[in-house]
């Protein structure tokens, strides 16, 4: 077997784990353009982008997630990942509930995320699930829905 064939097979195996839980004891080779991130909340949407449910993960799980070249090493800059990200990037109403010392930067994370997701939806690489996520998140009410569903509890 040639080294190119071996490389192709390695990449093919790695691509099967995208979005699945990662065992921290088992090192892995991620596909190009992916990082590992911790998950804390899972949101379920309809095919039309309507909020259906949400749940807090019993333990923080690590999954492989697509990223951009810039977001891979963003260190606090408003450069969102391609799909999975921190809640401040996904929630248009984040500052309404939590406020931050840098409201403009938090809003910039969200605006950049929505802009990138819209570009993905408009590209030849679009997917119905990405479009559903875009339609939901552009409403800017993720935190509101999480509060209403009982995932986030607000204190006075």
Spell out the blueprint of helices and strands:
Blueprint: H1 3-15, E1 34-45, E2 51-66, H2 87-90, H3 94-98, H4 103-121, H5 128-137, H6 142-148
Antiparallel strand pairs: 1-2
Helix pairs in contact: 4-5
Estimate the mean pLDDT confidence: 83
Main β sheet profile: 2 strands, antiparallel
Stretches where pLDDT is under 50 for at least 5 consecutive residues are none
What's the count of strands?
A: 2
Radius of gyration: 17 Å
Structural class per helix/strand content?
alpha+beta
Report the sheet-strand fraction.
Answer: 15-25%
* Separate helix tally: 6
Distance between the termini: 65 Å
Record the strand order, biggest sheet: 1-2
Share in helix: 25-40%
Overall form: globular
What does this structure look like?
With 156 residues, the chain is α+β, with helices and mostly antiparallel strands. It is 37% helix and 18% strand. It is built from six helices and two strands; from the N terminus they run αββααααα. The protein has helices at 3-15, 87-90, 94-98, 103-121, 128-137, 142-148, and strands at residues 34-45, 51-66. It has a two-stranded antiparallel sheet with strand order 1-2. A hairpin with a 5-residue loop joins β1 (34-45) and β2 (51-66). α4 (103-121) runs antiparallel to α5 (128-137). The termini are far apart.
Q: Which features characterize this protein?
A:
alpha+beta, two-stranded antiparallel ribbon, 6 helices, 2 strands, globular
Summarize the entry for a quick read.
This protein is α+β, with helices and mostly antiparallel strands and 156 residues long.
């Amino acid at each position: 077997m040639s080294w190119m064939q071996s490389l192709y097979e390695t990449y093919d195996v790695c691509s099967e784990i995208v979005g699945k839980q990662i065992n921290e004891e088992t090192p892995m080779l991620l596909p190009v353009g992916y990082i590992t991130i911790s998950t804390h909340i899972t949101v379920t949407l309809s095919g039309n982008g309507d909020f259906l449910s949400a749940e807090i993960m019993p333990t923080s799980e690590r999954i492989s997630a697509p990223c951009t070249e810039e977001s891979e090493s963003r260190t606090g800059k408003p450069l969102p990942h391609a799909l999975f990200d921190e809640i401040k990037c996904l929630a248009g109403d984040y500052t309404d509930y939590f406020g931050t010392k840098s409201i403009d930067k938090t809003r910039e994370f969200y605006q950049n995320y929505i802009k990138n997701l819209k570009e993905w939806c408009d590209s030849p690489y679009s997917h119905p699930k990405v479009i559903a996520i875009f339609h939901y998140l552009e409403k800017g009410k993720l935190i509101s829905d999480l509060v209403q569903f009982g995932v986030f509890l607000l204190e006075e």
